[in-house]
């Protein structure tokens, strides 16, 4: 079975489980929860860095899934719908702390990224072949602007394409492509710079 078929089948299973949960089967929710709990929690903890707050938003996301189950309609894949809820909760929280202007969806002009595949221009393992570089990469990700960090993490950890990330973030496709492009460029420069600094310091 190819990857496209596997993705379609997984989406069908998720949709069926949501329907079963809406019809009163708690086991269906448990299966969805077990399937996505790890990725969803990492999404919050990597975005925020505050474990308690990440846990609160994580639990609230699942609470909203439960609340919305009765009216769930298949307008998008379950994963897109789930992360859209998570995204909205995160934005609501950060907007209470920072100016709304930080979340402008304006695109930066540039060459388009292929939106048919995950939009990484280099594989994460190329930057994390050693423990030190893995640590540096995490530090550099934390320094990214919020919108770039979210797009990058959804792409890297969830394998979402630019099209799906645009649906999650409620942003234009070209804006998402720009965020991914500038995030990967910034991370590459940041990791290389910090690595050279550490390497120089040890000489």
Helical stretch tally? 9
Backbone structural class = mainly alpha
Give the name of the CATH superfamily of the largest domain: RNA polymerase sigma factor, region 2, helix turn helix motif
Distance between the termini: 51 Å
* Percentage of residues assigned to helices: over 70%
The CATH architecture of the largest domain is Orthogonal Bundle
Number of domains: 2
- CATH-derived topology of the largest domain: Rna Polymerase Sigma Factor, Chain: A
Number of strands: 0
Strand content: under 5%
Name the average pLDDT. Answer: 78
Q: pLDDT below 50 for ≥5 consecutive residues: which ranges?
A: 97-129
Give the biggest beta sheet.
Answer: none
CATH class of the largest domain: Mainly Alpha
Radius of gyration from the alpha-carbon trace, in angstroms: 18 Å
The topology string of helices and strands comes to HHHHHHHHH
What would you call the shape?
elongated
